[in-house]
Amino acid sequence: MRSVELFAGAGGLAIGMAKAGFQHAAVIEWDHDACETFRENQRHHTHTVDGWPVHEMDARNFNFSNIKTDIAVVSGGPPCQPFSMGGKHRAHEDERNMFPEAVRAIRELMPKAFIFENVKGLTRESFASYFSYIHLQLQYPELARRLQEDWLQHCFRLEQHHSANNGASTYNVLFDVLNAADYGVPQKRERVFFVGFRSDIGARWSFPEKTHTLDELLISKWIDGDYWDKHQISRANRPTIPHRLLKKIERLRAKPSILRTERWQTTRDAIFNLPDPELYPTSAIANHIYTPGARTYIGHTGSLLDEPAKTLKAGYHGVPGGENMFVKDDGSVRYFTVREAARLQTFPDEYEFRGSWSQTMRQLGNAVPVILAEAVANSVAASLAACDNTKKQ
Question: Which of 52, 304, 319, 322 stands the most exposed, by the fewest C-beta atoms within 10 Å?
């Protein structure tokens, strides 16, 4: 099945789509360093990106008529700064708001389905009206905004159309906030996903079920002890159960395990077999270079080793919560290397990044975790395959 990837960034969503079996007819990204990351991996013939047609350009200038029809899925992460807690919160007034271009791609390509991802901040109450507007545009992409029509007028026209058609939309669109940790990503990263299927194909779909849980991590750490055993941490060096968790642990002890999921993955799980870049500065591992200067202060504390990492951030004015560093076993902190951050975003180790530390961390902070992308893409691919099989019968 052929796909088009918009606002590709470092390629997290695009790689997840490829792993789910989609073949990219176009990969569109304006940032030069991100495109250099693609090209570097293509030079190395990295399997997941080899042969992708990468277009380094503004999506607003891309001509979709140059792509043949039969596009199964359009996917992408429209730039999230307009809706991010760390951004300027300007939403539709922000020149970086690319949702109109996402809708244009749907309108011109009319794919069977689409997958768009954005920050959880988009669901804030202050953006409720614009969120509804995005939803309506995705349901009726053929009703384009007219010249001299502002977004509120366009939204009103879409609402009238929706009412007149009794909700019979061109695309059936679902949205939900997914936590990447619930799908095996060693990072607490909540993102809103919009997934739509063209109504005429009759697809049946729901968001993939969670595969990993906090409860299982707590059991592994505080009941079975398997977590500490895996990391060869002796009983003498294991922490005590935090007081705030005592009652919860007792409930888990008494709770019969019927349908056990996998446990949440932690920062330690992600980076445990990488050499310390301070002790081994000549490591041959790509992008695994020590960056000095990490420090803590109020509200800037870094990620804990034995929990999923904080949400990696690109940062508009830096990274205020210390999300791009972690607390070592001795209590000191250091910045994640680019390779460690890539592990947290579940990029394959053979995938290399181009640019300075700050630029590559920006690429990673904006990325969709590969494993989460693959989980959503697999579920969409399965529904599309079921539709095709139904037609053949």
Answer: 304
